[in-house]
């Protein structure tokens, strides 16, 4: 597993944990940077992803809700919401990673961590965001 793949997984874990515990994701990130929960320090790309999702939280959630076709954010599994937020950030704002790579990584996370239907749903939704990206300003 590449360092970036691990960083995405850790970002997903932090966003999922923050939502499950009802705490601010930025505060949780700062806590984990100060006192790591694992022997290895937090990958800087994990922080980039979590901070990016937080910075664009409203826009990401609005776009996910708009293009998810019949699925409100509340209706989605919590792990899918976290995967989609990370993936949407990389697709829409992450110039470091090609869109296809961001989508593929999100689908891989969904395959490993979510329902049988989730990879197809996540692929379609993030693919749609990549298509409409040029029209977003």
UniProtKB/TrEMBL annotation:
<dbReference type="InterPro" id="IPR006027">
    <property type="entry name" value="NusB_RsmB_TIM44"/>
</dbReference>
<comment type="function">
    <text>Involved in transcription antitermination. Required for transcription of ribosomal RNA (rRNA) genes. Binds specifically to the boxA antiterminator sequence of the ribosomal RNA (rrn) operons.</text>
</comment>
<protein>
    <recommendedName>
        <fullName>Transcription antitermination protein NusB</fullName>
    </recommendedName>
</protein>
<keyword id="KW-0889">Transcription antitermination</keyword>
<dbReference type="InterPro" id="IPR011605">
    <property type="entry name" value="NusB_fam"/>
</dbReference>
<comment type="similarity">
    <text>Belongs to the NusB family.</text>
</comment>
<dbReference type="GO" id="GO:0003723">
    <property type="term" value="F:RNA binding"/>
</dbReference>
<dbReference type="InterPro" id="IPR035926">
    <property type="entry name" value="NusB-like_sf"/>
</dbReference>
<feature type="domain" description="NusB/RsmB/TIM44">
    <location>
        <begin position="6"/>
        <end position="130"/>
    </location>
</feature>
<dbReference type="GO" id="GO:0031564">
    <property type="term" value="P:transcription antitermination"/>
</dbReference>
<dbReference type="GO" id="GO:0006353">
    <property type="term" value="P:DNA-templated transcription termination"/>
</dbReference>
<keyword id="KW-0805">Transcription regulation</keyword>
<dbReference type="GO" id="GO:0005829">
    <property type="term" value="C:cytosol"/>
</dbReference>
<keyword id="KW-0694">RNA-binding</keyword>
<dbReference type="Pfam" id="PF01029">
    <property type="entry name" value="NusB"/>
</dbReference>
<keyword id="KW-0804">Transcription</keyword>
